[in-house]
Structure to design on (267 residues):
């Protein structure tokens, strides 16, 4: 672990990790699982992102909504890698649908919180965590997963192409990559940073940098270069007074994107 930290500090650029950002995220480790605390939005977003992944893999149809405590065997047999899993707020619910979930994150404190929360649940689910970078993980796990999830992560990554390339390498041909993130335009800036962080307090202040945001068409273009075909882009809308997320066709603020790794290699 110390070795990992040392390498990140010595050449964090090479490993595509922003130390300031990881430190900022780690400072919320103690409250990450509090559904009413600073990371509230991640908990509430599960209402849409859990079904976005589950139904994207299983039914391919319009996703249904998710409620806390929901469980089934819908994802039995699926291997899912949750990249940038934080303290496991999305990894765990996916595990309750029977998937084998591996969550990785560069923040040691968040991985510790994820492990502590998982063991406190005493649940019979196949979820495990590792403080690891995707670049290292793929060395032994190339083409292993049916799905790779990067939820609320790409907006924290400087070299998105390199990051997505590593994510795609972890996918089996025919597997799906699921991204959820914030689009880049003035309205997304207003909603996510000004309202989300500074007025409504849905997220900790200074969590996002506008220049790091990315639009669905940019993600699609990058994934296309990696032989992945985008099959779904759906918008998420937050209804502040009801504390709920809803699906919508407008993808100009927050969105989810699913792309499938094609079996035929690009020449
Ligand atoms: C907003 S949190 C999202 C956590 C989790 N995916 C969720 O939605 O509940 C962003 C996460 O990305 C992680 N992160 C930052 N840089 C990363 C990188 N280069 N590779 C993987 N994860 C990274 C942070 O440590 C943090 O846990």
């Amino acid at each position: 672990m110390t070795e990992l930290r040392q390498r990140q500090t010595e050449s964090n650029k090479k490993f595509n990790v922003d130390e300031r950002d990881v430190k900022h995220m780690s400072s919320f480790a103690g409250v990450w699982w509090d559904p009413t605390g600073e990371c509230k939005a991640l908990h509430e977003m599960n209402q849409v992102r859990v079904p976005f992944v589950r139904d994207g893999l299983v039914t391919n149809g319009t996703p249904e909504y998710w409620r806390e405590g929901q469980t089934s065997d819908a994802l039995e047999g699926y291997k899912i890698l949750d990249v940038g899993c934080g303290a496991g707020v999305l990894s765990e619910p996916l595990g309750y649908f029977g998937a084998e979930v591996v969550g990785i994150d560069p923040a040691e404190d968040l991985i510790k919180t994820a492990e502590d929360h998982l063991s406190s649940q005493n649940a019979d689910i196949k979820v495990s965590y590792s403080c690891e970078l995707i670049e290292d993980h793929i060395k032994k796990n190339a083409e292993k997963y049916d799905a790779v999830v990067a939820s609320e992560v790409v907006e924290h990554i400087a070299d998105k192409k390199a990051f997505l390339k590593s994510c795609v390498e972890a996918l089996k041909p025919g597997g799906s990559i699921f991204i959820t993130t914030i689009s880049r335009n003035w309205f997304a800036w207003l909603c996510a940073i000004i309202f989300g962080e500074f007025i409504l307090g849905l997220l900790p202040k200074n969590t996002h940098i506008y220049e790091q945001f990315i639009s669905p068409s940019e993600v699609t273009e990058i994934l296309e270069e990696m032989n992945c075909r985008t099959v779904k882009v759906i918008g998420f809308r937050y209804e502040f007074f009801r504390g709920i997320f809803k699906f919508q066709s407008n993808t100009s603020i927050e969105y989810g994107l699913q792309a499938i790794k094609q079996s035929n290699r690009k020449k």
